Amino acid sequence: MAKILIVDDSAIMRRTLHHIMEKAYHEVVGLTGNGDEAVKLYKELKPDLVTMDIMLDESDGMQALSAIMNENPEAKVIVITALGWEEKKDAAQKLGAAGYIRKPFDAQEIRQEIERVMGKSQIEMLQSIFSPQTADQQ
Questions:
Q1: Which of 20, 32, 56, 125 has a CA that sits 20 to 30 A from residue 10's CA?
Q2: Which CATH number do you get for residue 24?
């Protein structure tokens, strides 16, 4: 299970992503449609993963991505966009984005990209949540 911050200027998209994350047993720790707020929430909440729309109302998602990567070069950010996909993908990769999803997407694409970026399969994530600790692991 990953703690996830969702950044998208569309309330419908935030709700859709939130629903997908919860169905996959992830914890959504924050939601925002603003890049400046995303950076603030990242610093406060320290999520395991951020989904970042590139086109945001008040600030550019690329600026927010850059600020998050400056805060933590190991941050895991999945960029989600529909506009100028190839150009944005290359620019986001240079800034340190760990993954990319093109809109429109389906739930399976989201789950698979999270697994890839987090380096764990859904089964491994669930096992870490539900399997009892043994004395050797403590």
A1: 125
A2: 3.40.50.2300
